[in-house]
Write a structure and sequence with these properties.
This protein has 396 residues and is of the alpha/beta class. It has 2 domains: 14-101, no CATH class; 166-295 and 320-394, Vaccinia Virus protein VP39 (Rossmann fold), CATH 3.40.50. Helices cover 38% and strands 15% of the residues. It has helices at 14-19, 34-37, 51-63, 69-80, 85-93, 96-101, 115-118, 138-150, 166-177, 192-199, 211-216, 256-266, 295-299, 327-336, 343-352, 354-359, 378-394, and strands at 123-127, 130-134, 182-186, 203-208, 225-227, 239-245, 267-276, 282-283, 287-288, 308-311, 339-341, 366-371. The strands form 3 sheets. It has a 7-stranded mixed sheet, sandwiched between helices. A 3-stranded antiparallel sheet has the order 1-2-10, with no helix packed on it. Helix 11 (211-216) links the parallel strand 4 and strand 5.
C-alpha cells in the first residue's frame, strides 16, 4: 500500500535546527558553576556541544537570560537520567516565562468527540482499526463539515506544519518559477510558504480558518493574512499565482465548484494555479501517488467523487479530508470552471523534482493550471522553473 495522503511530516533533529549541527556525543559536565551557568553563547567551532553549552544556549534563545543555578542543575540532572534535549526544549517553550516573554496565549488541547457514537448509522464498517463513513446523501457532507467547524478541528495542534522546511521552499520555488510577483495562498496556516515568497519580494496574501495560525504566523506576513472563507472575502485585485497545497480536499465536495470558480476569478489572465491534493489512482503525468485502497473506491466510477470516507477510530475523516477522488475527477472539475492543466509544465516539474517526489509521494499529485485562453511562453517558464527549483534543492 502506498503512503497515505498528507503523510509528508518529517521529524527534524532539534539540535540541528537550534545550532545548525547535531548534538553529538555530549560529554558529562560538572555541576553548574558561575562560568558555565552564565555562558549564553556557544562556540560552534567544536565538533561537540556539552550539555552545559546546550542548556546555556536554550536559556539565552528561549528565555533571553542567563541560567539560574537551581533550574540549570535540575535540567542537567534530568538529562543525566535520560531525559532528551527535545523534552527540555518543550518544557521551556511551555513555561509561563516563555509564553509571557513572547506575548503568547496558551491554547488548550482540542478534545474531539466520538462521531461514531453521535451518528452511528453512517459508519458502515471498520477498516484496519479505522471507520468508514458513507455519505450517501449530500447533507452528510454538510453534517461532517459542521462537526469539523463546531469542534474546532483545525485548531487541533499537529494538523498543519508551521515550519519552513524543504517542502515549503520547493512550493515557493514553483510559484516563483511560474512568474509570481503576487501570490494568494488558500489554507496558508502560519504562512511558511508566504514568508519565503515575501523574503523574495513577492506581494503575498493568505486565507486561513485556523485561529492558531494567526498566533503562530510569521511576522513578515502576519498582516497579509485574512481570516475567513474564500467565498466571503472581498479582493480588489487578481494574483499571478494561486497556491492551494493540501487544502481543496478539506472542502465540501458538493460546494467545491463554487471555490474553483472563485479561484479562477482571482487568477490573473496570464497567471497560474498550483494545486496539490491527494488524488487516488493513476494519472498520465504523475503516475500513481495513492492507490485506491478502499474496495468501495475501486468499485466506484472515476468521474465522480467517492462518498465513502476513510476515518479514524472516532469517525473523523483522515487528515480532515472530505474529498476522495481520482485525478480524472479533479481535472474534470477544473475544466468545467475554465481552468486547464498545462501538462508540459507539469512534466517538467515532475522531472526536476523526481527524487523529491519519490521521497514524498503525497506531493506528486500536482496540477499546474491556467486559463483556457492563456498560452504561456513554455520555454521561458521551463527555464524559470529550472532555476528556481534548482536553488531550492541546493539550499542547505
Amino acid at each position: 500500500m502506498t503512503a497515505h495522503p498528507d503523510g509528508d511530516d518529517r521529524e527534524v533533529d532539534f539540535s540541528q535546527k537550534l545550532f545548525g549541527r547535531p548534538l553529538r556525543g555530549a560529554r558529562e559536565d560538572a555541576p553548574v558553576s558561575s562560568e558555565t551557568a552564565g555562558r549564553s553563547e556557544v562556540d560552534v567551532s567544536d565538533d561537540v556541544l556539552t550539555r552545559s553549552e546546550a542548556l546555556g544556549a536554550l536559556y539565552a534563545g528561549l528565555l533571553g537570560r542567563e541560567p539560574d543555578e537551581c533550574g540549570f542543575n535540575g535540567y542537567m540532572l534530568a538529562m543525566r537520567n535520560g531525559e532528551s534535549l527535545a523534552s527540555i526544549v518543550k518544557g521551556m517553550a511551555n513555561s509561563p516565562e516563555f509564553l509571557g516573554r513572547h506575548g503568547l496565549v496558551r491554547v488548550g488541547a482540542v478534545e474531539l468527540p466520538d462521531l461514531t457514537e453521535i451518528f452511528p448509522t453512517k459508519y458502515v464498517r471498520r477498516h484496519g482499526g479505522r471507520s468508514i463513513f458513507n455519505a450517501s446523501q449530500d447533507d452528510d457532507f454538510s453534517w461532517m463539515l459542521r462537526m469539523i467547524d463546531e469542534n474546532r478541528y483545525y485548531d487541533h495542534l499537529g494538523i498543519w506544519s508551521p515550519v519552513i522546511d524543504r517542502d515549503k521552499r520547493i512550493t515557493a520555488a514553483i510559484a516563483m518559477g511560474l512568474g509570481a510577483e503576487s501570490c494568494l495562498e488558500l489554507g496558508c496556516f502560519s504562512g511558511p510558504v508566504l514568508s519565503v515568497l515575501a523574503d523574495h519580494g513577492v506581494d503575498v496574501c493568505g486565507v486561513e480558518l485556523s485561529h492558531i495560525a494567526f498566533i503562530l504566523a510569521f511576522p513578515n506576513v502576519l498582516r497579509k493574512l485574512k481570516y475567513g472563507d474564500l467565498l466571503d472575502i472581498a479582493f480588489d485585485r487578481t494574483f499571478d499565482v494561486f497556491v492551494g497545497m493540501d487544502i481543496l480536499e478539506h472542502l465540501n465536495p458538493i460546494e467545491l465548484p463554487k471555490y474553483v470558480r472563485r479561484i479562477r476569478e482571482l487568477i490573473a489572465p496570464d497567471g497560474f494555479a498550483l494545486i496539490n491534493s491527494p488524488m487516488i489512482g493513476n494519472d498520465d503525468v504523475f503516475g500513481l501517488a495513492f492507490d485506491p485502497y478502499l474496495p468501495e473506491w475501486r468499485q466506484a466510477e472515476e468521474d465522480r467523487f467517492w462518498r465513502h470516507m476513510d476515518c479514524d477510530a472516532k469517525g473523523w475523516p483522515m487528515h480532515g479530508h472530505l474529498v476522495w477522488a481520482s485525478p480524472r475527477w479533479w481535472e474534470k472539475l477544473f475544466i468545467e470552471e475554465g481552468l486547464v492543466r498545462d501538462r508540459r509544465l507539469e512534466r517538467h516539474v515532475q522531472l526536476l523534482l523526481k527524487d523529491f517526489f519519490e521521497q514524498f509521494p503525497g506531493r506528486r499529485s500536482l496540477f499546474l493550471l491556467r486559463h483556457v485562453d492563456h498560452e504561456p511562453d513554455i520555454a521561458a517558464v521551463e527555464k524559470s522553473l529550472t532555476a528556481r527549483i534548482g536553488e531550492a534543492l541546493s539550499a542547505p
